[in-house]
Amino acid sequence: MKFSKKLFCFIGPGASGKSSICTALSKTDLPITLSISTTTRAPRPYEIEGRDYFFVSKDSFTQEIDKNNFIEYAEFAGNMYGTSISTIKTSFAENKHVILEIEIQGVKKLKESSLLKEMDCELVVIFICPPTKEELVKRFKARGADSPERINERLIIAEQEIAESIAPNFSNYVIVNKDLDSSIDQARAIIIAELSKRSVFDTSVISSFIK
Length: 211
Ligand code: 5GP
Description:
Helix content is about 40%, strand content about 20%. The longest helix is centred in the C-terminal third of the chain and has 18 residues, at about 150-165. By secondary structure, it is α/β, with parallel strands linked by helices. It has a domain at about 5-35 and about 95-210: 3-Layer(aba) Sandwich (Rossmann fold), CATH 3.40.50. It binds guanosine-5'-monophosphate. Guanosine-5'-monophosphate binds near residues 41 and 102.
């Protein structure tokens, strides 16, 4: 019986709250795995190898590209980020769907990926939008990690990302993240609805009804 898999891509500018939403979703009872990306970025003080990212050198990242081990990869703010094919295949083999938290270039590559079609996998893009510019600035400042100049740069990047994400046919869903708990509920509802679609239904579970 046909069993379609879903790749849930959460996109949104820095400080939109997408990481918190994805982490919360990965701790629920949904049949999903949160993919851990590989990056050349240096770890932040609170980040843990294998939990937040696989941190690698530029040389090892290039080797992974050459071996075709990434289903998508992109450069963002001077660092490389990539999603390994094996993570996705392993999750699908365990009948789990996959959550990715990635930037927009990666989504564009996935939209063109023939591998996803071969794996009978559907891409679902969920855009996490900050409620207002003022709130985004407040969140950047609250992190205390950036200078006023850097905050301005990040705002410009955020505006570009928002414009692309809301362009027709780019995102399937939009969540305006005013309140984290409500946004997690909304994201969970989206995943449950997507996994209730007939196209994902494994008819073998009702084999006793089928002659
Ligand atoms: P950060 O350095 O803040 O952790 O991530 C920077 C950006 O890279 C974020 O938008 C994040 O979602 C994105 N990102 C993280 N992992 C990947 C990945 O595997 N592929 C792509 N294309 N983007 C990623």
